[in-house]
Batch of 3 targets.
Target 1
Amino acid sequence: MRKTIQTVIFSVLVAVFAGQMSAKVNAVATTTMVADMVRDIGGENVEVIGFMGPGVDPHLYKATSKDLKNLKNADVVFYSGLHLEGRLADVFTRMGRRGIKVYAVTEDIDRESLLEPAEFAGHYDPHVWFHPMLWAEGIQTVVEALAEEDPENAAEYQRNGVELAASYEALHAWALLKTAEVPEERRILITSHDAFNYFGEAYGFQVVGVQGISTVSEAGLADIVRMVDFIREKKVPAIFIESSVSPAAIERISKDSGATIGGELFSDAMGTPGVIHSYDGEEYDEGTYIGMVKNNVRLIVEALK
Ligand SMILES: [Zn+2]
C-alpha cells in the first residue's frame, strides 16, 4: 500500500514537472502589428492572444471582459505604446502592480528617431510601424522579455529576432524601390488621420491627415474645406481611406475635390489573415505586418505614379 502511494505521488510529480517543461508562455498583445511581432519571435514556445482584430481602432479601444480574463492568465503583456492605446493605460498600470510584466514594444526605440508633430505638442507620434527600420528596433525588446520569461528557449528567441529584423530590412529596401516609381512632385499622401508620418519620412512623401494624430475627435467642416482647397492647388490625383477609421470625411473630400479614392490603406490594424494579394511578382498575406506594408505601398504607388 505504502509503495503504491509513493508510486502515485511520484507519477503526479513527474506529470506536473513535464507539464511545466512543455507549458507555453502565455503572451497577450494589443494591436495586430504587436501580436504579429510577438508570434514571429515566440514561435512554437509562445501562445499569443491578440486583443484587437482587423479594422479595430487602438486609439479608442477599451478592454472587454474577455480581455481582462486573458490578462489575468497572462505571463507577459505587450502593447505598442507612445499613448497609442490611450484607453488601456490604466489596465496596464494595474497589471504591472499585480506583478505581471508589461512591455511597450516601442519603449527602447531611440527617442531621437521619433517624430513629435506640432499638433501633438509634448507627445511622440505613436504610428512607428510604418517605418520598418524603426519598428525593427522593437524586436530586441520582445526577444529580451521572452528570454526572461522563458530562459530555456532564449537562444531561439534571439535567432528568431535576428531573422525577423532581416525580413523588416528587406521590406524597407523593397518599399524604397517601389515608392521611387512615384515622381517626387506627386508624393503627397492624404488620408483620414495622421497615421503615415513615419511612412512619409521613410519614403519621402508629404503626409496630410484630415483628422490629426488621434481619431478621438472627428474631422470638422473647416478641415474638409481646407483639404479640398489643398488638393485642387496641388492637383493631387488620389486620396485614401483607412481600414480603422470611418471613411465619411475622405469620401466627402473626394466628391468635392475630384480626387479619386486610391483604396483602403491599413493604418492602425493589419488586414484579414489568409487574404492573399499578388504584386510585383510575389504574393503576400494582408493579415501579416509585412503584407500590410506591401499592400499600402502597392495602393499608394498604383494610385499616385
Ligand atoms: Zn492612429
Target 2
Amino acid sequence: MSRKKFISEVFKSTGTIGALSPSSSFLAKKMLAPIDFDNAKCIVEFGPGTGVFTKALLKKMSPDAKLLTFEINTAFIDELKTIEDHRLEIINDSAEKIKQYIEAAGFTSVDYIVSSLPFAVIPDEIVHRILTNSDDNLSENGRFIQFQYSLNAKKKLESYFSEVKINFTPFNLPPAFVYNCKK
Ligand SMILES: C[S@@+](CC[C@H](N)C(=O)[O-])C[C@H]1O[C@@H](n2cnc3c(N)ncnc32)[C@H](O)[C@@H]1O
C-alpha cells in the first residue's frame, strides 16, 4: 500500500489508526526481540495495518506455529490478504474478541500478543476490555508486547501486567517506546 493510500485511510478511519505511516523495520525488530520463536506456538497480533510486523513474524515463526491477526480496517484487511501463508489467520474483528477466535483455532492460551493498538485514541472502556482479555488469555509465561509514541501507557499497563519493561527506538517516525509486559 502506498503512503498516499495509507494517509487516506488515516483520514477515513475517524482516529482508529493513530499513525501517519507504517512502522519501520527497526521498530519491528525491537517488537519481536522478546519472542522465543522456537517455543512459540500461538501468536496473536492486534492492529497489523499493512502488515509490517505480520511479515516479520512469519519470517521467524516455526512451521507449525499459528499467527492470528485482528484488524478492524477493511482496506488493511484487503492488503493483508495478499500475504500467502497457511500459518496466518486474518480476522476482521476487534482485538477484545480474542478469546472466541483463539478457541476456534484450537488453542486454550496465547504465547505472545504483539499489539500496535493506538491506546491514546481508543475509548477507555474498550482499552480496559482489550487489556483484561489479553492478560486472561496469555499462557503462564506469556508476553504482551505493545508500542506507543510516549511513556503515557506505562501506569496503565502496570495495572494489568505483573512486570513492564520498556525499550526505545529513535529509528521510527515518530520514535517509539516498546512495552514488554509479563502476564
Ligand atoms: C498505529 S496502526 C499500526 C499498523 C501497523 N501494525 C504498523 O505498525 O505499521 C494501528 C492499527 O490498529 C488498528 N486497530 C485500531 N483499533 C483496533 C481494534 N479495536 N482491533 C483491531 N485493530 C484495531 C487500526 O485499524 C490500525 O491498522
Target 3
Amino acid sequence: MSVFRPVAADRTRLINPFRVMDVLERARQLELAGADIVHLEVGEPDFATAPQIVAAGVKALELGHTAYTPAAGLPALRERIAGFYADHHGVTVDPSRILVTPGASGALVLAANLLLNAGDTVLMPDPSYPCNRNYVHLVGGRAVLLPPVTPGSPAPTPAQLDTVYDGSVKGLWLASPANPTGAVIRADEVKTLSDWASTHDVHLLMDEIYQGLDYLDDPAAGALDGPAAGALDGAAAGALNSPAAGASDGPAAGTMANLPTALGYSPNNLVVNSFSKYFGMTGWRVGWLVVPQALAATANILAQNLFIAAPTPAQHAALRAFDADVTEVLEQRREAFRQRRDFLCDALRSVGFTLPWQADGAFYCYAGIERFADDSEAFCQMLLEKHGVAVTPGTDFGRHDAHKYVRFAFTNSLPRLELAAERLQLALR
Ligand SMILES: Cc1ncc(COP(=O)(O)O)c(C=O)c1O
C-alpha cells in the first residue's frame, strides 16, 4: 500500500526563508546559554505601544467590540485615515478608497491579488523588503529586482526603468522610507516615477509604512508643491486641497508626516501604510491600503474573502493613534530614533563601514562591509557568535552585491548601541 506523503505546492519553492529569523533564533540560543547579545537585527520598534492606544484597545474589549467589522474596516477608522491625508498632506482621499487590513502585510497581499495576472512583471529595487517579491510570485507574477543606479540611490531612474520595460511590466513597487536602506525618495523623484508609471500603463504602489519616521531637516523634501498639484488631471484635480479640507481634529501639520504621499501625484497610485512602525503597533496587526476609486469595490470583495476583516479591538485602538496627545508621545520616540541614527551612523563610519545610502528614515543603516569581508552571512555569524552583536545579512534583501552589506536596525536603546559600537571596534579594528 502506498503511503501518502504531503507535498507543498510548487510555488512555495520560490519563497525564501528570512535569514534574520535564523540570526534571531541563534541569538536566543546564545542568550539561553548565558551570553549577552545586543539585538540590532529586528525591524520593530522597541517601545511599547503608547498607553493611550493600549487603553483604547482595552476599552474596546471591555465594551464587547469583539465581532467582525466590515471587510474594509471600521467606517470611523477609514474616515480618520482619510482625515490624516487631508490634515498632513493636503490630499483628499475618499474613505471608500481605503481598506483597513491586517498590517501592511495584509495590504500587500491584497494588492498583489487585486492587480496581477499570472505572467505579469513587477519592478522593485534591489535591495528591498523581501516579502514583496514573494507576494508577486505567489500570484504567478514575476518580480524583477533593479540594482541601484549607483550605490546609495534611493529609487530607480526613468532611464533605468526604460531599459527593462516590456509589455509584461504591470507594476512598480517602491517604499519610502525604505527597508533595508532607510533611504527616502524625494518629492520630485516620486512625481517623476509616478509620471513614468502613468505613461507606461503601469501601477505605482508606494509602501509608506515608515512615513513619520524620517529625520530630514529639509522640509522641501516633503513639500507638496506646484508640480505635484499639476500631476492630477481631470476629475482628480480636486483631490489636492488645502490642509483644512476634510480635516479631522488631529494634530497640526508639520509633525508625523513630513514626506510626500504618492497619493498626491496621481489618483491611480496605490499606497500601503500601517500602524506598525511610526505608531508602534506591530503586534496589533492593523494597516491600510489605498486603491484607485475604480478598484475599490473589487478590493472590498477580495478583502472579504482573504481576511473577513482586520482585528476589531485593534482597529478601535488605532482610532486613537492620530490624536494630538498620542502624536506627542510618538514624536518623542521619533526624536529618540534620530539620536540613535546619528550615533550609529557615526560609530559605523569610524569603525570602517561604508554607508552609501543616507539613513534619512525608518530605523535602519545599510552598511558596506567591503573593508572586512565579502560574505555578509559569514560576517553576521562571526559578529553574533564571537562578539554578541546580532545584525541581518544583506542577502535577505536582494541579490545585487547583497554579500557586501549588512543591515543594522537601531531598534535598541542608546546605551545598547554604545555597547554594540565598542564590540564592533574590538572585533574589527
Ligand atoms: C517595508 C515594509 N513593508 C511592510 C512591512 C510589514 O509590516 P506590517 O507589520 O504592518 O505587516 C514591513 C515590516 O517590516 C516593512 O519593512
